[in-house]
Amino acid sequence: MGGGDSGTGSIVQKKRPDSKPAQLSLLAPFSWCLYDWANSAFSTLVVTFVFAAYFTQSVAETPIVGTALWGRTVSLAALIVALSSPVLGAIADKTGSRKPWLGGFTAISVLAASMLWFIEPSPSYALLALFLVGLGVVAFDLAAVFYNALLPALAPPNKIGRLSGWGWGAGYAGGLVCLLIALLGLVRTDAPWFGLDVDRAEHVRATMLLVAVWFGIFSVPIFLYTPDPGRAGRPIGMAIRCGLRELFSTLRNVRRHRNIAKFLVARMLYTDGLNTLFSFAGIYAAGTFGMTVSEIIRFGIVLNVTAGLGAAAFAWIDDWIGSKKTVLISLVCLIIFGGALLLVESKTLFWLLGSAIGIFVGPVQAASRSFMARLAPKDMETEMFGLFAFSGKATAFLGPFLVSTVTLQFASQRLGMATILCLFVAGLLVLLTVAYPTTQSRSGP
Predict the structure, then answer these.
(1) 24-431: which CATH topology?
(2) In whole angstroms, what is the distance from residue 413 CA to residue 89 CA?
(3) How confident is the model at residue 24 (pLDDT cuts 50, 70, 90)?
(4) Domain ranges (residues) in the chain
(5) Backbone angles phi, psi at 83, to 5 degrees
(6) Kindly report the CA angle at 227 between 379 and 209, in degrees rounded to 5?
(7) What is the DSSP-derived secondary structure letter of residue 291?
(8) Least-confidence region, from 44-58, 265-279, 402-416
(9) What ranges make up the beta strands (E) of 20-175?
(10) What confidence score (pLDDT) does residue 302 get?
(11) pTM for the predicted model, two decimal places
């Protein structure tokens, strides 16, 4: 799995100016993809479906207040990630190591998820719940900076799209399996595992322990089998000084990377829409269509199936027609199906249109990652993926803020969710101005 040549059983690492080509076992890209399988449990069950709906429906005073509080928390977490990710990425490039950072932030995410078990269905637990969710989201997103920075060394340029897409596909598959376990063993059953007390929502809260175990166990292989391409780096103090100096130099001389800058602006806009969609999908389903937690989980299962199939299928298309066209096609489809979704009243149509949206969510994410891997200058991958994370979070407070504000102002979740389409359209228009790199260059000036 993951960008290898089936006839050789190995994958050739890209040539770098200071090193000879090296052979990577297929276990390296497989373990890299498995991390997507692992961390999807957090994003799927905590951020998007189960805990988000549980918080607004059972912990917060009212669903409307819960929606607003959830939006403010996600916005604050996004702001913290936006400010810290470019700095940490630049520092990591100078220390020469990515996996220690990846391990630290992964551990924080796992711990935060496990602590959500203690959140009982009472407004008195709302503040603690929001703190733990915010902490977990920040650590989750910062871990992704260092995870993504491992991608360019795992596949040649003409196969990066495939590996990135397969990773996203593995993530959706992992989210699907974890949701199935939560549904069949804990939520939708008359006798939840371990004799959990339904009246105290222990069967729902236990899904957070499932997330922690899942994330922790399946993230281990990347630390054992996926190489860290960073060379021996500087001591941490010197790395901080040099990393910050180089980051500020990059920002001052942005004209040298103007094509990358335009891509990051485009991604900043449409990813803000995607992040907001993820954060409020379960809340919207519960508040507007009256879906229960078990119904939301079933919808999440269907959505993960279509999203996983879309990510896997478009992985080949990415390498065939290019990352830019892949993202553009997916955004157009998201705008069309998303607009229809906000107009329907039928729960059946909500299911059908939501499932269709899932097909194009994965390709937007996977192709954006492979686009950045192709654009990033050599030996600046982590810094560039730090800016990549920044682009996904710099205005990420805006989407949740708009949704929560419009929802409160007009007492309508439909109008609040409609602001997401504006972000998709704006991102698409900016992306049209970005030049696609040649296979010989990854600098994208």
Answers:
(1) Growth Hormone; Chain: A; (1.20.1250)
(2) 37
(3) low
(4) 24-431
(5) -75, -30
(6) 115
(7) -
(8) 402-416
(9) 23-25
(10) 81
(11) 0.74
